[in-house]
Amino acid sequence: QVQLVESGGGLVQAGGSLRLSCAASGRTFSRPAMGWFRQAPGKERESVAAISMSGGTPYYADSVKGRFTISRDNAKKTVYLQMNILKPEDTAVYYCAAGVGGTFDLWGQGTQVTVSA
């Protein structure tokens, strides 16, 4: 089984930056794809970014392209989400997920990101 633990959330002013981390443990080879999702109050969970084991051509939601960067360190079994030029609409609980291809079925507990205007 794979366990995921997120960290790095917090409160930041608009225009600021945060870096989220997701540390994986267990049989991570069974879930090579990693992604970040978010859920704002009253809204459905949405995909933010995803990255394959090789790290090539990550996926980004249109709303974060040019501002967020997903990366991974396979030796440390850790995935990162660097978030720059944050906007109030980025406020949400951010979840790390692991899966195969485009299907994610293992989730972390989430970390709150709050961006003040």
Element pattern in H and E: EEEEEEEEEEE
Number of helices: 0
The shape, in one word, is globular
Q: Tell me about the largest β-sheet.
A: 7 strands, mixed
Beta-strand residue fraction: over 45%
Distance between the termini: 40 Å
Which residue ranges are poorly predicted, with pLDDT under 50 across at least 5 consecutive positions? none
Tally of strands: 11
Could you characterize what this model shows?
- It is a single chain.
- By secondary structure, this protein is mainly β.
- It has no helices and 11 strands.
- The protein has strands at 2-7, 10-13, 18-26, 33-39, 46-51, 59-60, 68-73, 78-83, 92-100, 103-107, 111-116.
- Strands 2, 4, 5, 6, 9, 10 and 11 form a 7-stranded mixed β-sheet that branches. A 4-stranded antiparallel β-sheet has the order 1-3-8-7, with no helix packed on it.
- Strand 4 and strand 5 (46-51) form a beta hairpin.
- The radius of gyration is 13 Å and the shape is globular.
- The model has no long low-confidence stretch (mean pLDDT 95).
